[in-house]
Design goal:
3 helices, about 200 residues, about 50% helix, Zinc_ribbon_dom, elongated, two-stranded antiparallel ribbon, Double zinc ribbon protein, mainly alpha
């Protein structure tokens, strides 16, 4: 019976993960649409600044444009701050951060794969002990045993001894899989390309 429980739990986790990913995608799309609308607002304000300056030019007194331009510039700054806030929300949803070189990386990256910048170590979260509850329906793994042990493949070799070839580039220092465009290992910071 525990076999079917495991399958049911796995399917439930998969559905939950897929639902969360879909909700994240919808939220990111909505935020990107807001950012796009705000950028269009900024373009219109830039056009208004241009008109004001040109009117001052025609009047041979550019100081006339200054009184119109300054409030518009302040409005543009406020909109840019809103865009930055929306972009921060997108990074939080995607669990990403920006490097000093401008590349967007996963939050847990320790070194930028593009420039090699080292990120500070995250501060450990204090662990709070709590009472452990055991589900009486699910058997203890140590009693039930591992269901994958002893599985024989077509080659008559146990599955645990089979090695899988990885097509990705691997860091020579720590063995972490690398992206094709990585110049530095995101785990240990070692250069991946010979100079």
């Amino acid at each position: 019976m525990s076999f079917f429980k495991k399958i049911s739990d796995t399917v439930s986790k998969g559905v939950t993960t897929a639902t969360e990913k879909a909700q994240q995608t919808v939220e990111v799309t909505r935020l990107n649409a807001q950012i796009s609308g705000k950028r269009k607002e900024i373009d219109k304000l830039f056009a208004t600044i241009g008109e004001s300056v040109y009117e001052g030019y025609l009047a041979h007194d550019l100081s006339l444009a200054q009184s119109k331009v300054m409030p518009i510039c302040e409005e543009i700054t406020a909109i840019r701050n809103e865009i930055e806030s929306l972009d921060d929300r997108i990074k939080a949803i995607r669990n990403e951060k920006d490097c000093v070189c401008g590349k967007r990386l996963a939050e847990d990256t320790r070194f930028c794969s593009s420039c090699g910048h080292k990120f500070p170590e995250p501060e450990p979260i204090p662990f709070e002990k709590s009472a452990i509850q055991v589900d009486p329906i699910v058997p203890d793994e140590s009693v039930a045993g591992d269901t994958t042990e002893g599985i024989v493949t077509e080659d008559n070799e146990p599955e645990t001894s089979r090695s899988y070839a990885d097509e990705r580039q691997i860091c020579q220092s720590c063995g972490t899989p690398l992206y094709a465009d990585s110049h530095y290992c995101p785990a240990c910071g070692q250069p991946t390309r010979k100079s």
